[in-house]
Design a protein that fits this description.
about 110 residues, mainly alpha, 3 helices
Length: about 110
Amino acid sequence: MLHRQQAALAMLECIIFSLLVMLVGIVLGQRFRVLILVPGVAVLLPIAIGVATFSHEGLGTTLLLAVLTVGTLQIGYLLGVGFRYALVAARIGGLRSRGGPQPARRPSAY
């Protein structure tokens, strides 16, 4: 029974860490270009390996968490880019539905 609880706790740690990495990817996707993923992976990968190592997981779980970290960062980045473009499209659509900026009128010659 104790082994199942430890396995469930390890799985919960992986899920929480993956969600946090995805949130980081979403923020990066809304603010930066795709090249930000290189330093993002360089920072998050040692953190993921450290989390798995300090929770006394095996090599397989450590590698799984490392791959999961890289994948969720990229998925989060894509979601962030999608959110950014959806917000821009909504703003443009809102401007058009309200009539948008009106062109300046010329004064009459009368």
